[in-house]
Known about the structure:
Layout: H1 8-36, H2 41-44
Amino acid sequence: MAERKLSKEEFTKLANLKQKQKKRIKARNELIKANEEGKSEYFAKGNYGTW
């Protein structure tokens, strides 16, 4: 498969998707960290697997 140059629109679309993905991962990691420190009400109620 030959490499082709992305158009500006395609590039910005992919970049935005990547940023959203990073934000989601960061938010999930913050939840997990808060749970480990015992600060999260989300996990305190036993809501595992409800996302």
